[in-house]
Amino acid sequence: MDVQRKLEILADAAKYDASCASSGTERRDSRDGKGMGSTAPGMGICHSYAPDGRCISLLKVLLTNACNYDCLYCVNRTSSNVPRARFTVDEVVKLTLDFYRRNYIEGLFLSSGIIRSPDYTMEQVVRVARLLREEHGFRGYLHLKTIPDADPALLAEAGRYADRLSINVELPSEASLNRLAPEKNAQGIRRSMAGLRTRIEAGRERRAPRFAPAGQSTQMIVGADDSTDRHILDLSTNLYGSYGLSRVYYSAYSPIPRAHAGLPPRAAPLVREHRLYQADWLLRFYGFAVDEITTGTDGNLDLAIDPKLAWALANRGSFPVDINRADRALLLRIPGLGVKSVGRILQARRHRRLRLDDLARLGLSLAKLSAFVVTADHTPRLLDRVDLRARLVPPPRQADLFA
Fold first, then answer.
1. What is the pLDDT of residues 243-278, one digit of tens each?
2. Is residue 398 part of a domain?
3. What is the 3-state secondary structure (H, E, C) of the chain?
4. Exposed/middle/buried for 297, CB within 10 Å: 0-12, 13-18, 19+?
5. What is residue 10's predicted lDDT score, i.e. its pLDDT?
6. Are residues 316 and 276 in the same domain?
7. Residue 7's pLDDT is what?
8. Are 277 and 354 in the same domain?
């Protein structure tokens, strides 16, 4: 099988892993004439954007989609009847370098099915990283998917070459993992995450050896079991706190060909994945707690509106907020205000009492914001209206193509 056909199969097989954003690492480049590559954006790279706003593009492939494991939700499971392919280590290295030289990418995301054993597979993944860094002086971004059952020494070596490491928890429930992925072990995943956290934190100390400077991430499949959003976000909060994760990624379950009868027949709504990302942001940067934003009787987020607006509508007694007097924590709870816009408000009100027009000049949309704030010239009159939600979230309307 030629490399082009392998790339078609193994790039397609890698698309189900969402945990490959490029952010948070140290800045490196080869402008000093040494090595090759850069973690900074380059001309023509515009395929995706990192959480910090940088434009990034990664070659995202599997070393192989052959796998000894039989995870029922995975299209590459051992019992799946899909075309199989396997790159050699040298082929992945050559592809990465060739794609970089053509300015297609600025880094590599490499994962793999389990072949022979976890140790053997991890050895192959690490060998790719070692060749890129040591033999070819590659200074671009490397994200390696690690295998929790592999020898800790291999995971330690991976961290010396990678910018980010990730271990997927896969499913929100340990019982679901036991049922749908019997070869995987939730406790083993947690132990590996704990070991990586220790090494990552040690690597951030002054003069310590470099170790995965962009931290570690994980992914959860949403909708493959009956876990509620409250359960998912509780787990995410625990992962951030206990293991110092840089990101938790959420991937809406999508039925695979010849799926097992124990899996849902329909895909999870993509909007659910979107709401979980919004809620995740509120938990990490806006001071919300899980029980504040998952108030539905079924423990799930409202799919029709964003979680902050849902909280505001359920807690109207906390509003209106005086934009000229409220502290930062309270401002962050106002629908329509983000972290950056709150910073601009705090800066602007040092010089004058803010009016609605001032908020508009700061680039803020008043459609939602004005219902919840007091300014020098405005007091809202809509908070007690039973139709406030309908006013703030008008129903979708099909546009007239010939208007």
1. 999 999 999 998 887 777 889 999 999 999 999 999
2. no
3. CCHHHHHHHHHHHHHHCCCCCCCCCCCCCCCCCCCECCCCCCCCCCCEECCCCCEECEEEEECECCCCCCCCCCCCCCCCCCCCCECCHHHHHHHHHHHHHCCCCCEEEEECCCCCCHHHHHHHHHHHHHHHHHHCCECCEEEEECCCCCCHHHHHHHHHHCCEEECCCECCCHHHHHHHCCCCCHHHHHHHHHHHHHHHHHHCCCCCCCCCCCCEEEEEEECCCCCCHHHHHHHHHHHHHHHCCCEEEEEECCCCCCCCCCCCCCCCCHHHHHHHHHHHHHHHHCCCCHHHHCCCCCCCCCCCCCHHHHHHHHCHHHCCEECCCCCHHHHCCCCCCCHHHHHHHHHHCCCCCCCHHHHHHCCCCHHHHCCCEEECCECCCCCCCCCHHHHHCCCCCCCCCCC
4. exposed
5. 84
6. no
7. 83
8. no
Q: Which structural domain, as residue segments, surrounds residue 37?
A: 3-293
Q: What is the CATH number of the domain that holds 45?
A: 3.20.20.70
In the prediction, which pLDDT does 261 show? 80
**CA distance linking residue 149 with residue 126, whole number of Å:** 15
Domain boundary, last residue among 293, 324, 344:
293
Same domain, 281 and 314: no
> How far is Cα 85 from Cα 18, in angstroms, rounded to an integer?
21
- The amino acid at 169: V
Quote the number of domains for the chain: 2
Among residues 238, 265, 293, which one ends one of the domains? 293
- Using omega within 30 degrees of 0 as the cis cutoff, is the peptide bond preceding 320 cis? yes
Same domain, 268 and 311: no
Q: Of the candidates 360, 388, 390, 385, which has an alpha carbon nearest to the alpha carbon of residue 375? A: 360
Indicate the pTM of the whole model.
0.88
Domain presence at residue 85: yes
Query: Which residues does the chain have with pLDDT short of 50?
Result: 22-24, 40-49, 401, 403
Q: Are strands 164-166 and 141-145 parallel, antiparallel or unpaired?
A: parallel
